[in-house]
Amino acid sequence: MKVTCVVDNAVCDHSTFWGEHGLTFLIETKSGCVLFDTGRSGTVLLHNLELLDIEPEAISALAISHAHYDHTGGLPTLLDQIARIPLYAHPDLLRERFSRREELKSVGLPLEREVLEQRLAFQLSAKPTEILPGVWTTGEITDRAEPEGRSAHHLVRGVEGWEPDPYRDDMALVLETGKGLVVLCGCCHAGLLNTLAHVRRTFGVDITAVAGGTHLLQADEAHLRRVIEVLRELGVPRLYLNHCTGQRAYVTLARAFGETVAPCPVGTTFEF
Ligand SMILES: [Fe+2]
Ligand SMILES: [Fe+2]
Fold it and tell me: Among residues 130, 126, 123, 92, which one has the least CA distance to residue 109?
């Protein structure tokens, strides 16, 4: 199994890959390829796929971590390039999302449900679901005893008006490698520690690596100390951190775990 970071905020110096605020991973297996998220623009996704020599038609399934535009914005461009493939996500993916900073704006899916359903075969479920042999969604991360990866300006329309986004759709992917589990995170709004605890409970196997956005941007010192403590309890999985991890969190984790922690800009690959 091979994982490649196709879209991220960061690219290496002198790289011909393009970067943007967004995330995409490609998972290549013997049984097919899964694209996890689509980045923000679609332009960056297609450019980077081309440099990686990956034809969009080679993608056999699409998985989406959650509705936000930096993970779904590439959908319209991508859908013009591929046949009707399955879409794996949580049913709440289809819920409208908003952000209110200076003004209120929509930050969810770029396409209407009807259009998406025409172009993709919906496999929406809150339960852990196997996409290809050894490639799973986590299912909904219901138990959130540890801090979530929240942003105060993320809202949804509730029965009685605006409410904080519950991020019910936020899921990660789990790869079964034979030498433990690899967890691929989108934005970790459900919380990194909640996600890892859920994976450990659901799959009952050690986690050997974690990659992606961990949403520790606003994590204070106590939260980061707790992350370090839990990662130690888990046997210190390898960490390939990018997207919404935040510089302070990255440095704190790299100080704690040394070479076990690595950045994960566009073009990073790891094989299991
Ligand atoms: Fe997000
Ligand atoms: Fe994100």
Answer: 92
Q: How far is the CA of 30 from the centre of ligand 1 (A)?
A: 30
209: buried, middle or exposed (CB in 10 Å: 19+, 13-18, 0-12)? Answer: buried
Closest-approaching ligand to the CA atom of 244: 2
Mean pLDDT within 94-100: 97
User: From the CA of 271, how far away is ligand 2's center (Å)?
Assistant: 24
pTM: 0.98
Nearest ligand by distance to the CA of 22: 2
Q: What pLDDT, on the 0 to 100 scale, is given for residue 25?
A: 99
DSSP 147: P
Query: ∠ CA(109), CA(113), CA(114), 5° rounding?
Result: 140
pLDDT digits over 203-224, tens only? 999 999 999 999 999 999 999 9
Q: Which pair of tokens denotes residue 174?
A: 């789990």
Nearest-angstrom CA–CA distance, 43 and 224: 35
Strands 181-185, 207-213: parallel, antiparallel or unpaired by DSSP? Answer: parallel
Token code pair at residue 198: 């859920």
pLDDT for 188 equals: 98
pLDDT of residue 133: 98
> Measured between alpha carbons, how far is 257 from 96 in angstroms, rounded to an integer?
39
Report the pLDDT averaged over residues 149-153. 95
Angle at alpha carbon of residue 47, lines to 42 and 48, rounded to 5°: 100
| Ligand found nearest the CA of 150 | 1
